[in-house]
Design brief:
Length: about 650
């Protein structure tokens, strides 16, 4: 197969911050002389006290540790706000586009944002929040979410954002895990004209969280929500009396910045912890180079702040770089499938960064919705969260970008803090579907099942050799799990959980997760999490969940369910279980297929053979492999014979 190659456009090669030669030079230096490279790159941050040590990192069990810029001190909110005031105080920092296109647009300057952050930080302090305390944020995509993040960073509190689509149960689990005593929320969220009962969800969650003493509630839709005396505070009333000055707290580089829960291959989501110094350098640097970003350009990352992309590329990276960053509350299809491109026109967005799942959904609606808009402001497009299939890539490139905007297909993870493998628009010829080349300081490697390095072209498990500043530092409350999850499979390397191919030109092609994690609409989910939700239902004896190919979502959720004896496995139960999972985790975990299974394929030692279930999920029975080690091989025939066809 001949792969299409899109050379770097001449104007990009000429004008970009990084052209091909610079990329080669800088990359080589970052690998050969990391100390020198990072000492220089870190100068993009205003340090309160400069660091003298660049890095102390080891992935080996004996002296395991990850520490960057250790003796330096800084404050991220000062880097995102205060230092811009003299030069760009009146520049718009956040352009807010509400769910309803007709009302509520906001343009918040750096000066305004600074004042709002200080006031809110003072309110947090007044409620007893101190450096190191955990603050749970359960807010819709509104500017106050960014205000809350930056206010936490300002006073050294650790924020933990929980995606506003998660259920009360999921929220409660995350509040409890990090022992957070304060929750920030809104009366309701708005998505595609529908109201999301955020405050009601918090009330429900807090029945299981006796440690929460303060809930700050943003009146967003103005709905009448019950307030608990002494615990609940109205956001506006709370900040009203606060001073617009709040001294940023001096943070050590390795002081925690935020926790973000993400799914792994075991049941309980992990609290990924990022720290202040390394993350700041990494988020700012990657944002600048990946998007060839110059201060003041209008930039839009369409991710939700509930995910890491929202942290690094809606809020922190852009604001550190003096950007005008767009925040969009709604969904791509509301009021119609033109919405994204209407926003692009309205704000004259130059750089747009989105997810393949949204593109696939829009692509299905036809080109007219795109062509009804101008998009002439667009210069660069980005993709994140999952592999982008060549059809979606080419639609994005040709229809949305009219063939003139490079696409940066960025591979990274919650754990990596920022982009790890990506084309750079002025440096890398594009191959549709390939995340291309490593970011500065990143040394990807492919290993085979035995841990042997695959050199040249080949396919294997993707690992990273050596640390980079934006790397997560621990799993909150479980450092051992951190080591076990990422550093024990292949000794001395960070294991990503992804499979990957490298071609003759050294381009990387992510092939998807090789662990029990699935990627549904760009949202990462542990199959074990969905299984434990299912078995928590009183009619379910056992459940196994696998991913299945899905045209829009990339992967869908396929659940095999064995019911308890005497339970009628019918359509009603199917509906009940779908509802149950949505209730336990949230709508993003809605199973696409539930297959009732009298038995699951197990080895004689009782281990479920997921390989076989995955094949059945894929509707591919040709290659089931060796089933002779199964305790009861007839189970498989039964599953195949009764496979329901998805609607
Ligand atoms: C997948 C999102 C292919 C991958 C930033 C990874 C991708 C997981 C890409 C992390 C991409 C992300 N191409 N796959 N460009 N970007 N992934 O933690 O499987 O939500 O391990 O971080 O998404 O998902 P997470």
């Amino acid at each position: 197969m001949v792969e299409a190659l899109y050379p770097v456009p001449a104007d990009w090669a000429q004008n970009a911050l990084i052209d091909e030669t610079r990329y080669q030079e800088k990359y080589a230096r970052s690998i050969d002389d990391p100390e020198g490279f990072w000492a220089e790159e870190a100068q993009r941050i205003d340090w309160i006290k400069p660091f003298s040590v660049v890095k102390q990192t080891s992935f080996d069990e004996a002296d395991f540790g990850i520490s960057w810029f250790t003796d330096g001190t800084l404050n991220l909110s000062a880097n995102a706000l205060d230092r811009h005031l003299a030069t760009r105080g009146d520049q718009v920092a956040i352009l807010f586009e509400p769910d309803d296109p007709t009302t509520g647009e906001r343009r918040i300057t750096y000066r305004d944002l600074h004042a709002q952050v200080c006031r809110f930080a003072n309110l947090l302090k007044a409620r007893g929040v101190r450096k190191g305390d955990r603050v749970t944020i359960y807010l819709p995509m509104v500017p106050e979410a960014a205000v809350a993040m930056l206010a936490c960073a300002r006073i050294g509190a650790i924020h933990s954002i929980v995606f506003a689509g998660f259920s009360p149960d999921a929220l409660a689990g995350r509040i409890t895990d990090c022992d957070s005593s304060i929750v920030l929320t809104a009366d309701q969220g708005l998505r595609g004209g529908k109201r999301v009962p955020l405050k009601a969800n918090v009330d429900e969650a807090l029945k299981d969280c006796p440690g929460v003493g303060t809930v700050i509630v943003l009146a967003h839709t103005g709905a009448d929500v019950p307030m608990v005396e002494g615990r609940d505070i109205d956001w506006a009333a709370g900040v009203a009396g606060q001073s617009a000055d709040c001294e940023p707290v001096e943070m050590a580089a390795e002081d925690p910045l935020f926790i973000l829960y993400t799914s792994g291959s075991t049941g309980k989501p992990k609290g990924v912890l990022h720290t202040t110094g390394g993350y700041s350098v990494w988020a700012s640097m990657t944002h600048e180079y990946v998007f060839d970003y110059r201060p003041g350009q209008i930039y839009w990352c369409a991710a939700d702040i509930g995910w890491v992309t929202g942290h690094s590329y809606v809020v922190y990276g852009p604001l550190m770089n003096g950007a005008t960053t767009v925040m969009f509350e709604g969904v791509p299809s509301y009021p119609d499938a033109s919405r994204f491109w209407q926003i692009v026109d309205k704000f004259e967005v130059e750089i747009f960064y989105g997810a393949p799942t949204a593109l696939r959904a829009l692509m299905r609606e036809g080109d007219d919705f795109v062509k009804a808009t101008s998009r002439k402001s667009l210069r660069l497009l980005g993709s994140v969260g999952e592999p982008i299939n060549p059809e979606a890539w080419s639609w994005y490139y040709n229809v949305v970008g009219e063939g003139r905007c490079p696409i940066v297909d960025t591979w990274w993870q919650t754990e990596t803090g920022g982009v790890m493998i990506t084309p750079l628009p002025g440096a890398t010829a594009l191959k549709p579907g390939s995340a291309s080349k490593p970011m500065f300081g990143v040394k990807p490697m492919l290993l085979d099942g035995e841990g042997k390095e695959i050199t040249g072209a080949g396919e294997g498990c993707l690992v990273v050799a050596g640390s980079w500043p934006g790397q997560m530092r621990t799993v909150w409350g479980d450092h051992e799990r951190f080591f076990q999850t990422y550093f024990s499979t292949f000794k001395g390397f960070y294991f990503t959980g992804d499979g990957c191919r490298r071609d003759e030109d050294g381009y990387y092609w992510i092939t998807g997760r090789i662990d029990d994690v699935i990627n549904v609409s760009g949202h990462r989910m542990g199959t074990a999490e969905i299984e434990s939700a299912l078995v928590a239902h009183h009619k379910v004896a056992e459940a196994a969940v696998v991913g299945m190919p899905h045209e829009i979502k990339g992967q869908g959720i396929y659940a095999f369910v064995t019911t308890n004896v005497g339970v009628e496995a019918d359509e009603d139960l199917r509906r009940e279980l779908v509802k149950w999972v949505r209730h336990e985790i949230g709508p993003i975990a809605t199973p696409d297929v539930i297959q009732f299974a009298p038995g699951l394929p197990k080895t004689r030692s009782g281990k479920i053979m997921r390989r076989i279930l995955r094949k059945i999920g894929e509707n591919d029975f040709s290659n089931l492999g060796d089933t002779s080690t199964l305790a009861d091989p007839s189970v498989v025939d039964n599953l195949i014979a009764n496979r329901p066809q998805p609607a």
